Amino acid sequence: MIISDWSDVPDRLASLSTQSHAGTLFGANDHQWRREPPITENELAELESQLGVELPAEYRTFLLQVSRGGAGPAYGLFPLRRVEGRWRWEGDGADMTDMGTLSRPFPHTEAFNPAEGLPEPPDEDDFESEEQFNAAEDAYWERHDAVVCAPEHYIGLLYLCHLGCAYREALVISGPARGQMWADDTAGDGGLRPLREPDGSPTGFATWYRGWLKQAEEQARAR
Predict the structure, then answer these.
(1) Hey, what CATH topology would domain 9-114+150-222 get?
(2) What is the pTM for the complete model shown?
(3) Which of 13, 109, 128, 140 is nearest to 70 (CA)?
(4) pLDDT tens digits, residue range 106-129?
(5) Which positions are tagged coiled coil (predicted)?
(6) Pick from 210, 221, 220, 214: nearest CA to 59
């Protein structure tokens, strides 16, 4: 079900910001419960024209009714900003979004790991000198990063937030998993995986955001 009415969310965020323990919740020191203003219909039209694709309904209505970024899961939603006539998302890891390929389909529907099949890192005990080991290690990680960071793995993914330690979560914009939230665990060689609900169904943007909001309210009340 597509949730298009976000009218309750601004008041819930405002209420959270006034609670004495809200600042102790994970990520709150970064977003501080602030939300940037929503975008207008004209701004959304310009954004989607630049991207060459319509954003998934739950996220586009959130942009129109709630906010273009700020208070949200983990360290907050990457803010959407217009810089010199071009729209872009900003934040730690927001640049992982390839704006030029969001209209191209993300091909996956199940978890996958770009690092799968790569050899293990070199073992220092296998080398006669530290210099040889360092050279082998540098060569290994250069190859590793070339494979794992290859752009084709991330087309159609819009990165929305980071969880720390280079772990991030993204919204699929195009392809068979359009509208689903995915976790990027490649920083720990864990690959990419769809977020799922307890019943196994895919997590959409609205469920993801509202789930975080409900949990934040429960945690604030319990402290």
Answers:
(1) SMI1/KNR4-like (3.40.1580)
(2) 0.91
(3) 13
(4) 999 999 999 888 888 899 999 999
(5) none
(6) 210
